Here is the input.
Amino acid sequence: MIVERNNIGLQINRAAGDNAHALKSPLAVAKIAIRRIRSQTPSSTLTINAALDAAEESIERMSDVIEAAQILDEETAALIAAPRCRLSVTAAVVDVLHQQHPLLAAKRLEVTHELRGEVPVYAGEGMLEMLVWDLLRNAVAAAPDESILSIFVERDDHWAVLRVEDEGPWIAADALEFTFEREYVRNGESRTRTPENAVRRRYFIAKRNTDLLGGYLTIVNRVAGGLSVVVRLPLG
Here is the structure.
C-alpha cells in the first residue's frame, strides 16, 4: 500500500510538470508573436494596441492558472506519498483556531464549538491540518463581521465528523451541485467575478484533500442563512 501511494505520488508529480510544460510552451510562442506585432504597430493605432494589451493580459492570467495548478498537483503528490499516522481531528481544530485567532478577532466573530472528545483519523503529517485550515479559513472569509461561526467534531459510527457552519451568503440552488468544480458559469454571468465561483475555487481544494483521506465532503445552504460544510473521514 505504501509503495502504491508513493508510485501514485510520483506519477502525479511527473504529470504536473509535463502538463505545465505542454501548456506554457504555446503561451510563450504567443507572447513572442504579440511582441513582434506590437513592435511593427504604430502607437497611434489605438484599437490594435488595445487588442494586444488584452491578449497579453489574458496570457498572463492563463500562466498564473497553469502555475497554480502545477503547485496544487505537486502538493497533492507530496500529501499522497506522506506516511500516515493517527491524528486527532479535535486537536487539529483547536490548533487551527489558535492560528486564525487574529483574523477571527479582526472580524469580531463569535466562535461556538462542540468538540466531543478525541476523534482520531489516519492522515499524513500536515494533511489533516491543511484540510481543517481550508474549511475554517473559507468559513471565516465568507462570514460577515460580528456573526457566528459554529464548529462541531463528533463520531458517527465508523466516521469522524467535522461540521463548520457560517452565516455568510448562500450558494444558488441551481449551482450547488457544481460547488466543487473549479469554475461553473450560469448563463449571462461573469466567469471570474461571481461570488459563487470564489466559493467553488476555495472548496475545490478542500474536497480534493478530503478525497485523499478516504472521506467525503458535503455543502448545503442553511435555512437560517450561510453554509453548512460537513467532512466525514474514516475513524482511525
Remarks:
- The chain has six helices and seven strands.
- The chain has two domains: 2-81, 84-234.
- Residues 2-81 form one domain.
- Confidence is low (pLDDT under 50) at residues 1-5, 184-198.
